[in-house]
Design goal:
alpha+beta, Alpha-Beta Plaits, 2 domains, two-stranded antiparallel sheet, 11 helices, 7 strands, binds guanosine-5'-triphosphate, diguanylate cyclase, GGDEF_dom, Rev_trsase/Diguanyl_cyclase, transmembrane helix
């Protein structure tokens, strides 16, 4: 908004200078006072209208909030009218054409730019045709021919430069987009396990550190569960490592579906996972982990035409204020070993 307002202010200063120049020309009898007056009202009025639409935020609802394209069409039209009414001083309007086109660098597509160029040639040809039909000066037709050539030179030069700048701008924009995407990817790689997309061990340790502090401060129960796929080695040995990888991915999806959005699943290492359940009393955690256990038991992973099934053992415990997170995880591990020892495919709480 600040940039658009500043651009609008710059356009207003330029327009005021042009109006002053037209009045100066009229004051010396070169242009008609009344025509200059009407032209000034229309030119400045249009500018004020655009400025108001931008400043009030109304233009934000439109596809191009800067209204660069429409503003440019309007400015070129004012310029062409100035060419007709400026009499012998009409030459001063031509350099302004390039200035108007330069405004196109900010926010116009290359297609819009080409349209403005064609539109400008059309308008100036019409303006010259009008002057040749209803001459207001004694200029020779050849002079108008020279004007038209100058219009073409100005337009092709400034359109080319603006086109190049627009291309550079678009290139920079696409590079920025690529960089943002790469940064997002790097951030994901830094916090997630590549195979399963579950949170990685390092990031989970950080999340646990923060969550432990929060749970103590607000006196809210925090549960930690350690999950280990039963006889996972057999899957690898029977169907291959890739089948094992696919099983790990399917396992993560199943666990994610069984826990709440506020709980966090992390790959703790190999086929061992850790779930952090926040604001959850033991009863709720037990129900949740039992649900996960059942979902994993019912899971069928299809790989190369083979249906792979497996189960999970889970050790669940609650964080006790004052102890270290490592101690809590150690207790969850003990519960897990108990689950394994009792025959696997079960949840043990400690
Ligand atoms: N495919 C695959 N296998 C993995 C990965 N990480 C660890 N493993 C395998 O997981 C298996 C773990 O085996 P064990 O620790 O003996 O345990 P288990 O076979 O699951 O048996 P229990 O835990 O006692 O029920 C090993 O064969 C590892 O090679 C992985 O990223 N992909």
């Amino acid at each position: 908004m600040r940039i658009r307002t500043r651009q609008g202010a710059l356009a207003a200063v330029l327009m005021l200078t042009c109006i002053a120049e037209m009045y100066w020309v009229a004051a010396h009898g070169v242009a008609d006072y009344r025509a200059v007056g009407v032209w000034s009202i229309f030119s400045m009025g249009g500018l004020v209208l655009f400025f108001g639409l931008i400043r009030s935020g109304v233009s934000l609802r439109w596809q191009d909030p800067s209204m660069a394209f429409v503003q440019m069409l309007y400015a070129v039209a004012c310029n062409a009218v100035a060419f007709v009414i400026a009499g012998h001083a009409r030459g001063v309007t031509l350099p302004l054409l390039s200035v108007i086109l330069m405004f196109g660098i900010f926010g116009m597509s290359i297609r819009q730019l080409a349209l403005v160029a064609v539109y400008s040639v059309g308008l100036f040809t019409a303006a010259i045709a009008y002057e040749l039909t209803y001459p207001s000066t004694d200029e020779e037709p050849v002079v108008f021919g020279a004007y038209l050539v100058m219009v073409l030179i100005v337009l092709s030069g400034s359109t080319y430069l603006t086109w190049r700048l627009t291309q550079i701008r678009e290139h920079v924009r696409s590079q920025k987009k690529q960089l943002t995407e790469a940064l997002e990817k790097i951030q994901q790689i830094a916090i997630r396990d590549e195979l399963t997309s579950a949170v990685n061990r390092r990031h989970m340790q950080e999340l646990l550190r923060v969550e432990v502090q929060r749970s103590v401060r607000i006196a809210s129960p925090l549960l930690i569960a350690v999950l280990d796929i039963d006889h996972f080695k057999r899957i690898n040995d029977s169907y291959g490592h890739q089948a094992g990888d696919r099983a790990l991915q399917a396992f993560v999806e199943a666990v994610q579906a069984g826990i709440r959005g506020t709980d966090t699943l992390a790959r703790w290492g190999g086929e061992e996972f850790l779930v952090m359940l926040t604001d959850a009393p033991m009863e709720l955690g037990t129900v949740c982990m039992s649900r996960v256990r059942t979902q994993v038991q019912d899971l069928v992973v299809s790989y190369n035409g083979i249906d792979i099934r497996f189960t999970v053992s889970i050790g669940l415990t609650q964080y006790r204020p004052g102890e270290s997170v490592a101690k809590t995880i150690g207790r969850a591990d003990e519960a897990l070993y108990a689950a394994k020892a009792q025959g696997r495919n079960q949840v043990v709480c400690l």
